[in-house]
């Protein structure tokens, strides 16, 4: 049986949006919670359709997060809201 692989690029394309003036809210953080770089220092994204979480994360940092322990649940580093669970990984075809 072939090993199922998490498709990071597909997840990023379908479930993130770039940080823009239009999607910044009062709770949007100004630094990546992983590397602590300012949002202006690198491309930052927001994960779409996550209830109660408007935080942004550096795109490269998110790629590393998704690639590390790919089968584990993933949550926002700031508010801990889960955006990718073990079940949703296989249900959405990302495994």
Could you explain how this protein is built, in words?
The protein has 95 residues and is α+β, with helices and mostly antiparallel strands. It has one domain (8-84). The chain is 24% helix and 16% strand. A 3-stranded antiparallel sheet has the order 1-2-3. The radius of gyration is 13 Å and the shape is globular. The two termini are 13 Å apart. Residues 1-5 and 87-91 have low confidence and may be disordered.
The averaged pLDDT comes out at: 79
Distance between the termini: 13 Å
Instruction: Estimate the strand proportion.
Output: 15-25%
Reported for the largest beta sheet, the result is: 3 strands, antiparallel
Number of alpha- plus pi-helical segments: 3
Fraction of helical residues: 10-25%
Q: How many separate domains make up the residues? A: 1
Low-confidence stretches: 1-5, 87-91
Strand order of the largest sheet: 1-2-3
**Overall body shape:** globular
